[in-house]
Amino acid sequence: MKKDLTPFYPPLGPQPSRTPLYAPYPVTLVMKEKVLSLSGDDFKVETSDGAQILKVKGKYVSIRDKKKFKDASGRELFTLSNKMLKLHKSFKAQSPDGHDFVVKGHFSLASSKSSIEFTNHADGAPVELRLKGDWFDRKASIKLGDRPVAHITRKLINGRELFFDKQTYFVSVAPNVDLSLIAAICVCLDERENED
């Protein structure tokens, strides 16, 4: 699947492309829900070779299911929160620097569909990505038009994950794509699937 992930020029994402959140080569993120977190919504996000990319910390008590995303150095990137009173679960990411985006859930039988809207930092263009997931096959794809941006797969559940209701995701991301955006989309997908 990585071979269909070609580089994006200009870079694609709401965060500035000069940050380590972009790579000039395909990256596989390994996203693990932390089993013993008090909030139940903490994620560890690393590359497949073990380099930490993000820290995702859920709030212990939060009506909007808020999660703070920080880079590996601990700098806050954005807070992801559930948009209340929506028919289909949707999320808004608000950044201290104004690099905001929205993930809107859409109705679909036996699959998960969302649209992701943001202003691309590199060129100021409005962008809409589409996510379509098939959880019977434990996979999802994120696309810009017909062009693949990332592929998400869920690891087969082992006993510990089944007991604690935690998941591990593998996310293949195209070169020059904001890794924090893709990780947030995966977290939104996890939230929607856990709700259903």
What does this protein structure show overall?
It is built from 2 helices and 12 strands. By secondary structure, the protein is mostly beta strands. The chain has a 12-stranded antiparallel beta barrel with strand order 1-2-3-4-5-6-7-8-9-10-11-12. The model has no long low-confidence stretch (mean pLDDT 86). The radius of gyration is 15 Å and the shape is globular. It has helices at 159-164, 179-195; strands at 27-33, 43-47, 52-58, 67-71, 76-83, 90-94, 101-106, 112-119, 126-134, 139-144, 147-154, 168-173. It is 12% helix and 41% strand. It has one domain (2-188): Porin. This is Tubby C-terminal domain-containing protein. Belongs to the LOR family. InterPro entries: LOR, LOR_sf, Tubby-like_C.
Topology, element by element:
Blueprint: E1 27-33, E2 43-47, E3 52-58, E4 67-71, E5 76-83, E6 90-94, E7 101-106, E8 112-119, E9 126-134, E10 139-144, E11 147-154, H1 159-164, E12 168-173, H2 179-195
Antiparallel strand pairs: 1-2, 1-12, 2-3, 3-4, 4-5, 5-6, 6-7, 7-8, 8-9, 9-10, 10-11, 11-12
